[in-house]
Specification:
The complex is a heterodimer of chains A (118) and B (115). Chain A contains no helices and 12 strands. Chain A has 118 residues and is an all-beta fold. In chain B, 0% of the residues lie in helices and 49% in strands. In chain B, the strands form 2 sheets. In chain B, strands 2, 4, 5, 6, 9, 10 and 11 form a 7-stranded mixed sheet that branches. Chain B has a 4-stranded antiparallel sheet with strand order 1-3-8-7, with no helix packed on it. Classes of the chains: A mainly beta (118), B mainly beta (115).
Chain lengths: 118, 115
């Protein structure tokens, strides 16, 4: 079974600075997807960024980018120019891409609570 | 284009009562997933449904919990004879397909509190 580990329960960053959130995962599969979701105090689950494992290029969405290291099974999220609205719980998630089996389940880490200081 | 709609946002039940949580997927989405988030935890998969079919309920407790997604109307997650340990946030997600890395779009969740 796949597992996702977020080793930082809490992180803080100064407004306008850059912060990196860590995520590692364990899988025996070669084809999969990785996601970062944001959960603000309103408790919505908002998709931040997605990475296909077969792509070597790191995904980028505006101020959000990832560092995907497939061999190391690492998938960190970098937030540049942090804003107050970035304060939230961030969850890393894994999803298999295999055509057989349960390739629809998202497996989540326990989350990292990000605080942005003005 | 409305997102995934869940209701109620908050639900309070006494031990032994039934809880019914509703989820209307995004327009054009025929795949629905339910997840549970316990305090201080990430979301855990419960069940995956398509219209009139339960595809995978491996993450759902065998007793007291059931889910359906009828031909017409929302998906329902039903918890009978609730206990304190059922207190959690229950999230519904939907997607147009169950493969190809299609992201699952989440609703705002239902916070269930058991007195």
């Amino acid at each position: 079974a796949q597992t996702v580990t977020q080793s930082q329960p809490e992180m803080s960053v100064q407004e306008a600075e850059t912060v990196t959130l860590s995520c590692t995962y364990d899988t025996s599969e070669s084809d999969y997807y990785l996601f970062w979701y944001k959960q603000p105090p309103s408790r919505q689950m908002i998709l931040v960024i997605r990475q296909e494992a077969y792509k070597q290029q790191n995904a980028t969405e505006n101020r959000f980018s990832v560092n995907f290291q497939k061999a190391a099974k690492s998938f960190s999220l970098k937030i540049s120019d942090s804003q107050l609205g970035d304060a939230a719980m961030y969850f890393c998630a894994y999803r298999s891409a295999n055509s057989g089996g349960s390739n629809y389940k998202l497996t989540f880490g326990k989350g990292t609570l990000l605080t942005v200081n003005p | 284009n409305a997102g995934v709609m869940q209701n109620p946002r908050h639900l309070v039940r006494r031990r032994g009562q039934e809880a019914r949580l509703r989820c209307s997927p995004m327009k054009g989405h025929s795949h629905v997933y339910w997840y549970r988030q316990l305090p201080e935890e990430g979301l855990k998969f419960m069940v995956y449904l398509q219209k009139e079919n339960i595809i995978d309920e491996s993450g759902m407790p065998k007793e007291r919990f059931s889910a359906e997604f009828p031909k017409e109307g929302p998906s329902i997650l039903r918890i009978q004879q609730v206990v304190r340990g059922d207190s959690a946030a229950y999230f519904c997600a939907s997607s147009p397909l169950d493969r190809g890395g299609q992201p699952q779009h989440f609703g705002d969740g239902t916070r269930l509190s058991i007195l």
